[in-house]
Amino acid sequence: EWVEISKKEADEILNPAPSVEQLKQKELAELEAQIKETEGYIRHAILIGNDSVLPELREEYKGLLSEKEKLQKEVGDGKD
């Protein structure tokens, strides 16, 4: 027998909500992109001799690395 479903139900079946693991992986990828961008800013500041922004950029960089490490542990814990 056939059971009629709504368009919303069909969409939910075809496009399920992302899992927690998928969301963490996406967040990790976004953090990695931010880290690379910040590395580029640091290199540029060093290249042009703009030492005044380096402390702020380094703090941002450290924070991003810390977030990445924490998220990697969470992702790793989820795999066990």
Description:
The model has no long low-confidence stretch (mean pLDDT 92). The protein is elongated and about 75 Å long. It has 3 helices and no strands. Helix 2 packs antiparallel against helix 3. The chain is 79% helix and 0% strand. With 80 residues, it is mainly alpha-helical.
Short structural description:
The protein is built from three helices and no strands.
Mean pLDDT: 92
What is the tally of beta strands?
Answer: 0
Distance between the termini: 41 Å
Radius of gyration: 21 Å
Structural class assignment: mainly alpha
Shape: elongated
The helicity comes to over 70%
- Per DSSP, what share of the residues sits in E-state strands of 2 or more residues? under 5%
- Number of distinct helices: 3
Which regions have little confidence, pLDDT < 50, spanning 5+ residues? Answer: none
Helix-strand blueprint:
Blueprint: H1 7-14, H2 20-48, H3 54-79
Helix pairs in contact: 2-3
Which features does this protein show?
80 residues; mainly alpha; 3 helices
